[in-house]
């Protein structure tokens, strides 16, 4: 059986795990192509208008896999750790896709139910049951598949911790664009905040990463920091955030500002992203308090590339000038 | 010598962009139709429209049997004209479309400030959607872009029909579309292809905004001011892969619908509350005040004619409407011996 | 201490009662108006949902009116509401306001924490007396909800337009004045009798419409342009899936609504098989329930961009198809205009009457909207 993994949302965090797990239980795994105009346009056509652009793209990716696979892998990932949630839209995703499946002629969905909110150890059993119910795999084989999946995921995480991005580590993610490394002159350390499924999707964010590299920015991304360190750094609020993605973002900005690891921060939010629309207030407050320049970029399916380039150039120019002034101050002192 | 009166039905549709009036005969055929700009003055537009209508009818002696009002200013229009039926414009458009094509299944309507999609089955409305927020789904989108390109909007259609491959204009939003269009111009895309590309963009936006999870099947009627644009008709046919019909009176369909609704009341002569064509000479004043009846402090609209309050409305509890109704009843009782 | 909390429909009536019993001075925020929303929207993040913007407007107006302590309900996600308080606190402090902020987390999240919050508002309050206070206040809240629920049904048949709303005001005053448990019980009966006395036309043909969606939009008439009252005046019998006390009650048996949460979720399961926060799953389940009960149609209300409701909206076309029930979805933000909402609602009622006519006739009915009763009467 061929199973398709949409190149969207959780793909950018867990592809190695899922791909290995599904292959280990004997499936042929196919991923959808990188997001392109057709995929996004197809998604926009079917998805509710008020949904965020990455979820619209997810619909498009399911359509892109329609004629190539026997089943679509659309897990219900409720929670990736204790006392946390992913995002409501991830919780409802399998039902949202199922609601249009008949009309669009989509293949059957494979939907393991994964919830580590109450008890992280449940995860293992949820997967074992999934493998048994869907493919008749016995427990020992499922555990073996789980172990190799974990290993693959660990290698991926190690790569990230070593300073590489999901773009370097995931198959054919690198944009077809020559990588011009660092222009001459002092580089600017720019912290890039945002959900991996936005910032590493070159179509959705208009080649943002490549653009920044072209103008010689040294990119700092949350994935470079160990997940637990990010979580620990995000605990300074009176009430713990219950969205894992947002907690990572909070942790990252807290670390970056406290340790002066970046010269500026670009914060990419999807239009209609619920959690980000709120924590934006806290992120901006933090940056202001620590006097770190921050630019929020709201993206949707209509964002034009020209506008984006102008804004990131203006932002990096401003960082350069600021640094020069700062350097002068130091020289005087 | 006075000719015997012809029975007619008056329909009026007052929207934020245009004010349309029609007179239908007993067989729902259009005897006269007026399409004019509202220009932010609905009362004046109605008065001027009534005068124009009278001129069009010349010396034909019309006995207006019933009056219907629709459009965003239907309430106001209903009061000053004495309409017998006041209906929302979605229903009015559906009624008119089923008059033109009795088995119509899909109605596409694009006006200057809003757009609608109505799905019918066996003559009844089963689903609809309306966009009034996003300019890029309405006629004003094309108005803006045509001004930008320096092409009169009337010629837009003929340009679009010459195109062989429409340019892809990105963006649902007018602003994004505009920058994309300029970009396409700068790289030398033919003007016809840009114009047709804009039609495609509007159609795409329309379908994405309004057509979600709806079955769009033939017969399809396309109406509203924008339906005059042959490029838009072609773009809809491309996108839906269906034949699209544009009725002759496509720009006054709301008014036609409200006249038909008035006709369906089957009033006897003299039963109509129509105030006559003379209303076009009266002086109306509208004002608003805050009602202090409760903590809602609703804003109440008051309309006066010749210094006398004609009607008040707008509150949540319906108190002012009820008072006016009671006053009207008292008046009637007083006048009948 | 002068405490305040945001408005949400008739919640303030219950809060006033509760704080009085606790011996805390309650500053009722000025009634929510367009100005309140403008004040709130100005200081809110652009893409935050509408309730947060109105909350902030209420808070600012309450602070200006002398409140020095604010209380806000919490929650544990995944919807945004549970984190409103933290963000509102941050925004208000950035604006330079000084106040004490109290976040009331659900009872299920920890009974002790729940108690300590009330204790910090009213030092020395014992668990026993808190329990008693809550019980009595809550019973009063239930009585308010019952009145409002009944009004939605009576208004459809009232003979003199506005009678129901006027009776409701009177009934509300009677209940507000009641204090002891006995008085409350008597006042509940007396106020209901006031409402029942509204002169009605028992033979009127009414459309039955269910109202579902996000709780704030359902509970706060300001946010939905007083839609329920409007529908009532159009002669529409209404039932609604969310009520203040059902929403507060930890067991969620939905006494007022009449259908326990568990059942509603069961009805939703074939279409939406997991909680998605807010009322997303309840919205789907309630549409199924209303369809099964033979309602003519359902109206879904939500703040623009509301995540749980957007999920429900994405799924509802399938529910409509399987259960053959029309659903009108209305999303609200600070840009929404009343006229556009009313036009859609009127067209929706025309659609429902035409469907009913056709069903009754058993043959294709002409498009003529059976809506003489529905059309706006001048």
The SS-based structural class of chain C is alpha/beta
Number of helices of chain B: 10
What is the CATH first-level class name of the largest domain in chain B?
A: Alpha Beta
The Rg value of chain B, from CA coordinates, equals 22 Å
- Shape descriptor of chain B reads globular
Biggest interface pair, counts: A-C, 41 and 45 residues
Question: For the largest beta sheet of chain B, what order do the strands appear in spatially?
Answer: 3-2-1-4-5
Amount of beta strand of chain B: 15-25%
Query: Helix share of residues of chain C?
Result: 40-55%
Looking at CATH, the homologous superfamily of the largest domain in chain B is: ATPase, nucleotide binding domain
Biggest sheet descriptor of chain B: 5 strands, mixed
Separation of the first and last Cα atoms of chain C: 50 Å
Output the helix-strand order of chain C: EHEHHEHEHHHHEHHEHHHEHEH
User: Whole-number average pLDDT of chain C?
Assistant: 92
- Main sheet: strand order of chain C: 2-1-3-4
* Biggest beta sheet summary of chain C: 4 strands, parallel
Bin the strand percentage of chain C: 5-15%
Give the number of DSSP strands of chain B: 13
Cα end-to-end separation of chain B: 35 Å
Tertiary shape of chain C: globular
Which class of the largest domain in chain C in CATH terms? Alpha Beta
């Amino acid at each position: 059986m061929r199973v398709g993994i949409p190149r969207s949302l959780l793909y950018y965090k867990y592809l190695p795990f899922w791909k290995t797990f599904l292959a280990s239980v004997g499936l042929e795994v196919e991923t959808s192509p990188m997001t392109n105009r057709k995929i996004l346009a197809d998604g926009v056509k079917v998805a509710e208008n008020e949904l965020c652009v990455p979820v619209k793209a997810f619909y498009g990716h399911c359509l892109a896999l329609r004629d190539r696979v026997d089943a679509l892998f659309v897990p219900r990932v409720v929670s990736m750790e204790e006392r946390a949630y992913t995002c409501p839209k991830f919780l409802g995703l399998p039902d949202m896709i199922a609601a249009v499946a008949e009309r669009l002629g989509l293949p059957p969905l494979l939907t393991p139910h994964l919830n580590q909110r109450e008890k992280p150890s449940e995860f293992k059993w949820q997967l074992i049951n999934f493998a048994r119910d869907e493919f008749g795999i016995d427990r020992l084989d499922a555990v073996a598949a789980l172990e190799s999946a974990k290993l693959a995921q660990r290698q991926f995480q190690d790569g990230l911790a070593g300073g590489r991005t999901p773009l370097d580590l995931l198959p054919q993610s690198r944009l077809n664009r020559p990588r011009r490394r660092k222009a001459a002159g002092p580089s600017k350390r720019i912290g890039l905040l945002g959900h991996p499924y936005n910032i590493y999707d070159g179509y959705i964010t208009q080649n943002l990463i490549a653009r920044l590299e072209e103008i010689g920015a040294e990119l700092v991304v949350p994935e470079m920091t160990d997940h637990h360190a990010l979580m620990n750094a995000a605990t300074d609020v009176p009430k713990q955030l219950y969205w894992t993605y947002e907690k990572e973002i909070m942790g990252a900005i807290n670390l970056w500002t406290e340790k002066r690891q970046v010269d500026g921060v670009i914060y990419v939010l999807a239009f209609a992203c619920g959690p980000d629309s709120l924590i934006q207030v806290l992120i901006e407050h933090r940056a202001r308090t620590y006097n770190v320049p921050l630019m929020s970029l709201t993206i949707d399916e209509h964002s034009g590339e020209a506008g984006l380039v102008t804004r990131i150039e203006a932002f990096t120019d401003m960082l350069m000038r600021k640094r020069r002034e700062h350097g002068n101050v130091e020289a005087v002192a | 010598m006075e000719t015997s009166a012809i029975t007619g039905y008056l329909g009026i549709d007052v929207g934020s962009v245009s004010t349309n009036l029609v007179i239908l005969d007993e067989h729902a055929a259009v005897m006269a139709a007026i399409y004019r700009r509202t220009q932010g003055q609905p009362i004046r537009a109605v008065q001027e429209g009534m005068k124009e209508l009278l001129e069009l009818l010349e010396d034909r002696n019309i006995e207006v049997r019933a009056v219907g009002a629709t459009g965003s200013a239907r309430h106001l229009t209903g009061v000053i004209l004495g309409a017998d039926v006041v209906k929302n414009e979605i229903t009015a458009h559906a009624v008119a479309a089923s008059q033109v094509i009795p088995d119509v299944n899909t109605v596409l309507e694009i006006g200057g400030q809003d757009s609608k999609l109505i799905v019918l089955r066996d003559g009844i409305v089963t689903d609809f959607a309306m966009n009034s927020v996003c300019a890029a789904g309405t006629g004003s989108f094309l108005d803006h872009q045509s001004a930008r390109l320096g092409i009169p909007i009337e010629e837009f259609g003929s340009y679009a029909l010459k195109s062989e491959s429409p340019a892809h204009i990105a963006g649902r939003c007018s602003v994004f579309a505009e920058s994309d269009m300029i970009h396409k111009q700068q790289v030398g895309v033919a003007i016809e292809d840009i114009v047709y590309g804009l039609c495609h963009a509007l159609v795409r936006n329309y379908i994405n905004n309004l057509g979600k999870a709806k079955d769009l099947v033939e017969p399809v009627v396309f109406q509203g001011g924008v339906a005059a644009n042959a490029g838009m008709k072609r773009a809809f046919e491309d996108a839906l892969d269906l034949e699209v019909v544009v009725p002759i009176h496509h720009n006054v369909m709301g008014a036609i619908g409200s006249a038909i609704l008035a006709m369906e009341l089957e009033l006897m002569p003299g039963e109509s509350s129509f105030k006559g064509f003379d209303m076009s000479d009266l002086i109306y004043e509208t004002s608003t005040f805050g009602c202090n009846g409760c903590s809602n402090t609703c804003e109440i609209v008051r309309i006066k004619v010749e210094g006398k309050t004609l009607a008040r409305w707008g509150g949540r509890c319906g108190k002012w409407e009820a008072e006016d109704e009671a006053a009207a009843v008292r008046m009637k009782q007083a006048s009948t011996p | 201490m002068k405490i305040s909390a945001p408005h949400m429909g008739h919640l303030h009536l219950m809060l006033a009662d509760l704080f009085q019993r606790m011996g805390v001075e309650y500053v009722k925020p000025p009634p929510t108006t367009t100005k309140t929303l403008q004040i709130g929207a100005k200081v809110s993040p652009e893409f935050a949902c509408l309730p947060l913007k109105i909350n902030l407007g209420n808070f600012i107006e309450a602070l200006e009116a002398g409140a020095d302590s604010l209380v806000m309900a919490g929650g544990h996600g995944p919807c945004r509401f549970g984190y409103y308080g933290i963000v509102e606190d941050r925004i208000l402090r950035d604006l330079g306001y000084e106040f004490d902020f109290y976040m009331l987390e659900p009872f299920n999240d920890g009974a002790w924490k729940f108690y300590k919050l009330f204790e910090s508002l009213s030092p020395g309050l014992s668990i026993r007396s808190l329990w008693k206070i809550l019980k009595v206040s809550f019973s009063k809240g239930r009585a308010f909800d019952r009145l409002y629920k009944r009004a939605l049904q009576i208004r459809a048949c009232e003979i003199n337009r506005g009678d129901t709303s006027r009776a409701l005001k009177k009934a509300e005053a009677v209940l507000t004045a009641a204090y002891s448990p006995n008085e409350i019980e008597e006042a509940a009966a007396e106020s209901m009798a006031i409402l029942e006395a509204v002169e009605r036309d028992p033979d009127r043909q009414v459309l039955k419409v269910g109202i579902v969606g996000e709780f704030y939009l359902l509970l706060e008439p300001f946010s939905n342009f007083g839609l329920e009252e409007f529908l009532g005046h159009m002669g529409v019998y209404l039932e609604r899936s969310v009520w203040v006390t059902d929403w507060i009650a930890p067991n969620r048996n939905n006494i007022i609504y009449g259908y326990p949460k568990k059942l509603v979720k069961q009805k939703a399961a074939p279409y939406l098989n997991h909680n998605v926060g807010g009322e997303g799953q309840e919205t789907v389940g309630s549409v199924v329930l209303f369809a099964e009960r033979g309602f003519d149609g359902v109206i879904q209300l939500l703040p623009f961009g509301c995540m749980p409701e957007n999920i429900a909206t994405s799924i509802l076309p399938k529910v409509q198809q399987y259960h053959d029930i029309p659903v009108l979805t209305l999303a609200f933000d600070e840009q929404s205009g009343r006229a556009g909402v009313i036009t859609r609602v009127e067209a929706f009622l025309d659609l429902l009457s035409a469907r009913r006519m056709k069903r009754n006739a058993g043959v294709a009915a002409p498009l003529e909207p059976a809506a003489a009763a529905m059309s706006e009467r001048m």
